[in-house]
């Protein structure tokens, strides 16, 4: 079966859950970039939202000057990665958006080197101009295709966050076995990959995406995000074998020690799923567009 198109994420579902009437917001910025129509709005509470298309799903929601404010549930759930790698020395974020994740990481892990990659230079510009994203000695932004960066970069990361979306899709070349093999090769021995994907309700390739992660990595956990259609996939190149209760206790302790405004333990308790058995509903996605069963 051939999969040469982008991974459609169900525009109707996204619109129903993520779109707020434009009349309720002030449009601060709108531009057609080489990759998207970038729209920045601000509501009455001072929350700024980034969309790729006027009626597209929310890519980022930021309270400028307050990196602790994580409005979108999926962004909080992605931080479960730190429960698997508690004091990362080097992190990579593929997909900048409004800079929510790197800004939060820098606030609570000020000694961690954070590389951020985004293919669209206008997104990087907007993140700095409207969302308070800042580079410094430890936080670096690169304008490049995320896959090319990972394949060419020689450094190793403790955590790689994969959060690259267009207006309604994950680019296919960021979902294949070959790409995930490059991600695995970019990790330290105990490193993990954390990916934001849409569930099968709005993503017809969800099962194949899970199957592809299972084919490349030795251990996989999936977390349902309460109140959203996202699933957070955490993949390791070694066996971890941690139970729901043990992970919840560890996550809760991190939240308290770091002063998070939310409890990571609650996110584990709600959404934890071990993905040890191969997802037989999916097939391994390949660069050549062919999806085939592994094994």
Structure description:
The protein is of the alpha/beta class. It has one domain: Vaccinia Virus protein VP39 (Rossmann fold), CATH 3.40.50.150. 29% of the residues lie in helices and 28% in strands. Helix 7 crosses helix 8. The protein is globular. The N terminus is likely disordered.
List the helices and strands and how they pair.
Blueprint: E1 7-8, H1 11-18, E2 26-32, E3 37-42, E4 47-52, E5 58-63, H2 73-78, H3 81-84, E6 90-94, H4 100-108, E7 113-118, H5 121-130, E8 139-143, H6 146-152, E9 157-162, E10 169-170, H7 177-185, E11 187-198, H8 206-216, E12 219-224, E13 230-236, H9 244-258, H10 264-271, E14 272-274, E15 284-285, E16 291-292
Essential attributes:
about 300 residues; Rossmann fold; eight-stranded mixed sheet; 16 strands; about 30% strand
In short:
The chain has 295 residues and is an alpha/beta fold.
The count of helical stretches stands at 10
β-sheet strand percentage: 25-35%
When the domains are counted, the total is 1
Low-confidence stretches: 1-24
- Tell me, briefly, the overall form: globular
Taken in chain order, the helices and strands follow as EHEEEEHHEHEHEHEEHEHEEHHEEE
- The CATH superfamily bears the name Vaccinia Virus protein VP39
Major sheet strand order: 8-7-6-9-11-13-12-14
Tally the beta strands: 16
What's the architecture, going by CATH? 3-Layer(aba) Sandwich
Reported by name, the CATH topology is: Rossmann fold
CATH class, named Alpha Beta
Cα Rg: 18 Å
Query: If you average the pLDDT, what whole number results?
Result: 90
Helix content: 25-40%
Distance between the termini: 17 Å
Structural class by helix and strand composition? alpha/beta
Largest sheet: 8 strands, mixed
